[in-house]
Design brief:
The complex is a heterodimer of chains A (285) and B (269).
Chain A: H1 15-21, H2 30-50, E1 54-55, E2 57-58, H3 65-77, H4 80-111, H5 113-126, H6 135-141, H7 145-173, H8 176-184, H9 189-218, H10 220-223, H11 232-241, H12 245-272
Antiparallel strand pairs in A: 1-2
Helix pairs in contact in A: 3-12, 4-5, 4-7, 4-9, 4-11, 6-7, 7-9, 8-9, 9-12, 11-12
Chain B: H1 2-10, E1 14-25, E2 28-40, E3 45-49, H2 56-64, E4 71-76, E5 79-80, E6 88-91, H3 103-114, H4 118-131, H5 147-159, E7 165-169, H6 177-194, E8 197-202, H7 205-211, E9 214-219, E10 224-230, H8 245-268
Parallel strand pairs in B: 3-8, 3-9, 6-7, 7-8
Antiparallel strand pairs in B: 1-2, 1-4, 4-5, 9-10
Helix pairs in contact in B: 3-4, 3-5, 7-8
Classes of the chains: A mainly alpha (285), B alpha/beta (269).
Chain lengths: 285, 269
């Protein structure tokens, strides 16, 4: 419900600030605001290419949105689904493995001191290694390219899920009052785990899952360097090798789009699991 | 409810013997409680009253089993306290309902842990919810409830497990004056039915006199029981009673006793 100036009496001390803030035609509508942000982004990009902007950053050789649109059209009139499907399968499989492993290990590390001591040091050592550095080992370790690619996408998703789960469990355990509430109801450790720690760490796990989803896509181009034929990341990499620039940008945007969409789905799905959470932001109605 | 009443009136004797607590910080010993000695009879409403820093919450936490004494011990019905348990219900000062459970689920939790069947859980919880006027909020999450409602739910969450002792740590301190009075009357109303032993911590003199059978006035540096005062005001009590001469005289008497300690604790910072 948007607050407009007309809702508030003339004499109200809020009247003036409301008049300044409320713009019922354009900016008050959040979908319009969001579309406007995208239009501005592409508009500025087109403008920079059209004018041949070259001031430290050079846009002269950057494909303009129109060229990218053309490449996209070509891509979709050919056979896009085989590429999209193979990329999607790799990301989803890698993500599924990474998130289940991340949650299970994260809970163990957060809940048991012994697991923290035994598991965390090697994991912390592996965490800063970028996905691209895994390529040679992925080739050596895995029986085929497909499993190597799934491995590399899962590397991207695993660590955010793991760390967020550990932190979520730890921060719930640090909430003395909630733990005491459980103890006074006769809860044994298992009950505290089930009724307090699991739901208490869910917001943190959910943000790990959302970030992990994005990171899995993030690693796709890296992973598909291993691919022989198909994949959105493969096209992107292949176009770079053949100096065909518009499809690179198309591939980038396509990955961005699929990544954003799947992160959105994850964040919606996890949000639905937490009906007790209400988020009120500054400036929200 | 009647069955519970009979059962309740024979249990809930709290004995505190030579209880001392000190914490060590940076090599220095900080004595919080020294040689606390007190006995609370089954069904008694005891109030621990004192200025901030007198260790009244620490004393309550010891009875709850949240912390361990440096010396001495606490027993409830001759059983020494070693850890928290459902036999000692606790109502916290902060709103402490689990945010991810509805009112009903929060109250039900203790019974669920104890392994009660679903129909008997529902019967007991709904009975209490009706009792404190929360039935229509049974499916609300804590964020949808007012502070007073949340504390009512917290009290019921503790009582539904029929504890021997109900421990209350300034449960109404965060509420506005109007709601606080309502809550005090509601608490007395329930307590008169159940006759559970209550240990109620507060720094509010009027609240302590209005609620308690007996006041333990605590002093500071280190925390100790300075005075014990039986309150013989007739029950059931109503808000009007706080305006009686008897009440005002008691208030003055307690105020004098506590004033000195408050000054001491203010000087100590």
């Amino acid at each position: 419900m948007a607050v407009t100036a007309s809702n508030i009496g003339k004499g109200s001390p809020y009247a003036r600030s409301a008049q300044v803030k409320a713009n019922p035609f354009l900016l008050a509508n959040r979908s319009i605001r969001r579309l406007l942000a995208l239009a501005l982004f592409f508009g500025i990009w087109q403008l920079l290419c059209a004018t041949g902007f070259d001031l430290f950053i050079n846009f002269q050789l950057v494909p303009a949105p129109t060229e990218v649109a053309k490449a996209t059209l070509e891509f979709f009139t050919a056979d896009p689904w085989v590429h999209i499907k193979s990329s999607l399968m790799r990301v989803l499989l890698g993500y599924a493995i990474a998130s289940s492993l991340g949650i299970v290990l994260g809970v163990l590390i957060g809940w048991f001191e012994a697991f923290e001591d035994l598991l965390l040091p090697p994991l912390e050592l592996l965490r800063p290694i970028p996905a691209v550095a895994w390529i040679p080992l992925a080739i050596l370790m895995f029986p085929n390219a497909e499993s190597g690619m799934v491995y590399i996408t899962s590397i991207g998703a695993f660590f955010p899920v793991l760390i967020s789960t550990v932190r979520g469990v730890e921060s719930t355990l640090s909430d003395t009052v909630l733990i005491r509430v459980g103890q006074c109801l006769g809860a044994r450790p298992w009950h505290i785990f089930k009724h307090i720690v699991v739901p208490g760490s869910m917001p943190s796990i959910a943000s790990g899952l959302t970030i992990g989803m994005g990171n899995a896509w993030f690693c796709l181009v890296t992973a598909e360097i291993l691919a022989g034929r198909y994949g959105v990341g493969y096209i992107t990499w292949e176009s770079y090798v053949t100096s065909n620039y518009p499809p690179i940008v198309m591939g980038m945007l396509l990955i961005g789009l699929m990544g954003a969409a799947s992160s959105w789905i994850v964040s919606r799905a996890t949000g639905a699991l937490m009906p007790w959470r209400v988020i009120r932001k500054q400036g929200s109605a | 409810m009647l069955m519970q009443q009979v059962e309740q009136s024979v249990k809930g004797a709290v004995q505190i013997e030579g209880l001392s607590v000190s914490f060590h910080r940076q090599g220095r010993e900080n004595r919080v409680l020294e040689e606390i000695q007190l006995g609370i009879r089954p069904g008694e409403f005891a109030c621990l009253l004192g200025p901030s820093g007198c260790g009244k919450s620490t004393l309550l936490n010891l009875v709850a089993g949240f912390i361990k004494p440096t010396a001495g011990y606490v027993t409830v019905d001759q059983q020494p306290i070693t850890r928290p348990g459902a036999d000692r219900g606790f109502v916290f000062q902060q709103y402490s309902l689990l945010p991810w459970k509805t009112t009903f689920q929060n109250i039900e939790l203790g019974l669920k842990i104890r392994g009660l069947s679903k129909p008997s859980r529902r019967e007991l919880v709904d009975d209490y919810l009706n009792r404190v006027g929360l039935y229509k909020h049974r499916n609300s999450y804590p964020y949808q409830l007012s502070g007073g409602m949340q504390q009512r739910a917290s009290i019921v969450r503790a009582l539904v497990n029929s504890p021997s002792v109900l421990l209350m740590d300034e449960p109404f301190a965060a509420l506005d004056a109007q709601t606080r009075h309502m809550m005090q009357e509601l608490l007395l109303d329930i307590w008169e039915d159940l006759k559970t032993t209550v240990i109620f911590v507060t720094h509010d003199i009027e609240e302590a006199i209005f609620l308690g059978d007996r006041l333990y006035i605590m002093g500071v540096q280190p925390g100790h029981i300075k005075a014990e005062l039986p309150i013989r005001l007739s029950r059931p009590r109503h808000f009007d009673d706080t305006l009686s001469t008897e009440f005002i005289n008691l208030h003055r008497q307690v105020f004098e006793c506590i004033r000195e300690e408050t000054l001491k604790s203010m000087e100590a910072g």
